[in-house]
Each structure stands twice: as C-alpha cells, then as structure tokens.
Design goal:
10 strands; four-stranded parallel sheet; disordered N terminus; alpha/beta; elongated; 41% helix; 16% strand; 343 residues; Rossmann fold; transcription cis-regulatory region binding; 434 Repressor (Amino-terminal Domain); 13 helices
C-alpha cells in the first residue's frame, strides 16, 4: 500500500483506478467480473488491487442493496473435466432461478487460500457460496462472515476427487455381477493411491472379494498408466486362473485390453475387463467397455439447489435426488467366465 493511501486509510476504488491507469468505472466493471475486460487490463487492475490491499466497501454496497444476483462455486486451482460437468449442471439450475453462477479458483499456500476465502465471503459480491474444496477457515469464523456458505467438498487442494466423487461402492456391484457370470478369480489394477478414489476402489474390491468367498490374484498398482496396466495383464501367469480384471478407471481398462490382445487372449472370451468413468471412447472401443458412469452434472444440480436454498429461491428437488450419482453400464468387455481359463 502506498504511503499516501496508508495515511488516508483504506484504499478506494479511485486509488485502484489511479494506480492501474484506468477509470474508476473500469475498475467497477472488473469487480463485477465483466468478461469484456481484456486479460492485459485485468492483470493491471489485479496488480493494483493487490498492491493497495483493496477491499470493496461492503457498507456502501449494503446501503445500495444487498441483492447481487450472483452465486459462486469455490474450486482448487487445477484441471479436472468433472469440475466442468459439475459447473454445467449447477449453472442450469441457478440460471433457471434468475441468478448468475461463477466458478472461482482458490490457489496458493494454505494461509493465502484461507485469507482469500475470508476476503471473498466478506466482500458482499455474492449472495451465497459453495465450497467444492476444503476452505481451511475455522467454522465459527465462516459463520461470522457476511456471505452464507455451504461446504460440498468434491476435490482436495490438488483437484483430486474426494467425498461422493471418490466413493468406490460400485466396485462391489461389478465384482458381484461378474461372479453371477461364473467368474471366481479376479485381479485389481489399482490407480494412483495418492487419490482417495483409487484407495476407495481398492478397498471395496478387497472387501467384496472376501465377503463373496472369491479369489483375488492380487492388487497391482498401475498409477493411472494404461501402459503399466497392459504390462500387468501381459505378466499374469496362465496358471493363476484369472478371468476377470477390475480396473480403477477406463484408461487402465483400455491398457488391460491391449495387454490381453498382445498375448493372444480375447475379451471377453478369455478375460472380462471393467473400467470406471464411462469415458466418451468407452462405448466405441473394440470391444466396448463395461464401466461405471458418474453423473457429475446431477451432483452440480444438487449443490445448486442447496445454494439457492440459502437465498430462499430453491426449486423443489426431484424425488430421486438422493440416489447415487453412479451407475454401471454393462457392455461387450464382460461376459461369462470361460470353461477353462486361458493359459
């Protein structure tokens, strides 16, 4: 903050405008997240805001009226296709209720993330906010801030799935479905065990194998590498009698199918293989892949309804809203267990 601004107290929107070399109307448009502001101009204003430690005058805004018509989802920085699907589902519900929805990323070290959350919730820019990641702010402090917030953690700080998105319960249905087709000996190709989703799928696999009295050749850690999955299938001893592969996601399943083909095994004639995610290519592979589909958009709609409830504008939820967001899609990569496992 400049010495002059420090002497006068809290920085104003005109101080930011002067430092950035723009009009105060332009700064006002920036604060409203006007998409017509160029990236270069946005960077100049952001730098001025940070240098002056500028915070919007929430008292003045309150005098002009509390309603902004804006809601927000807070996400960790990073990339995940599922987050775009969640946002799409949430946006439709919010816009149908006459509100605008914005997705904001919260990056940096924990202390900086926490302070940004506090500043945001104290700014009055939004009528309600949903945190799709841990906000790292004490619960009592969150309650004391101006903007109501709900916690719907779907990602950790590295944009890895947590909570409902990481629930591996459907693995039990895959294993039991294959057991009904006569399969008794399985192997699990595990994902990166730094991910809660990979851990959950592994644990459910082991629990289900034990509860159904089936046999597991083992759990083979593949990260998320289809090449490692293919090598793992290629290295399976014929004497192991494995007839079913439970892969932690569709990429590993695709690698497993390739590994089976390299050693002359057919899918599902010699080996049944399942994935997870219902990747857009899963239905057009040869063979098409049995997998678990995750309805990220429906999760987004749920979160949106909870947000709207905070501002007393929530539409009625459909009767099946509490149903799981996952479902199994059985396709060509699974079939009856072979009479004699491939050697």
């Amino acid at each position: 903050m400049s010495t002059e601004t420090a002497r006068r107290g809290r920085a104003t929107i005109r101080d930011v405008a002067a430092r950035a070399g723009v009009s105060h109307q332009t700064v006002s448009r920036f604060l409203r997240a006007d998409p017509t502001i160029s990236p270069a101009l946005r960077e100049r204003i952001e730098a001025a805001v940070e240098a002056l430690d500028y915070r919007p005058n929430v008292v003045a805004r309150a005098m002009r009226g509390r309603r902004t018509g804006r809601l927000a989802l807070l996400l960790p920085s990073g990339e995940a296709i599922s987050s775009l699907e969640i946002l799409a589902g949430a946006t439709g519900v919010v816009e149908d209720s006459g509100y605008a929805l914005e997705a904001l990323t919260i990056g940096g070290p924990p202390a900086a993330r926490a302070q940004r959350v506090v500043d945001l919730l104290d700014s009055g820019l939004f009528e309600a906010v949903a945190g799709l990641t841990a906000l790292e702010v004490e619960p009592e402090r969150l309650v004391a801030l101006r903007t109501p917030v709900i916690l719907a953690p779907s990602y950790d700080s590295h944009m890895r799935s947590v909570g409902e998105l990481a629930d591996g319960s459907r693995i039990a249905d895959l294993v039991s479905g294959l057991a009904d087709l006569g399969h008794t000996t399985f192997v699990h190709l595990a994902g990166d065990l730094e991910h809660a989703s990979a851990v959950s799928r592994r644990e459910v696999y082991l629990e289900t194998i034990a509860s159904l009295g089936l046999h597991s050749y083992g759990v083979i850690e593949c990260g998320w590498s289809p090449e490692r999955a293919g090598d793992a299938v290629g290295a399976l001893p014929g004497a192991a009698g494995v007839t079913a592969v439970i892969a932690a996601n569709d990429k590993l399943a695709a690698g497993a199918i390739r590994g089976a083909a390299r050693r002359g095994w057919t899918v599902p004639g010699d080996l049944s293989i399942t994935g997870w995610d219902d990747n857009e290519l899963s239905s057009v592979m040869m063979p098409s892949l049995s997998t678990v589909s995750v309805d990220h958009a429906r999760l987004g709609r749920r979160i949106a309804r909870d947000l709207l409830a905070l501002v007393d504008a929530s539409p009625a939820a459909p009767p099946d809203d509490e149903e799981p967001i996952t479902r199994i899609v059985w396709r060509e990569s699974t079939g009856r267990a072979p009479v004699r496992p491939a050697g």
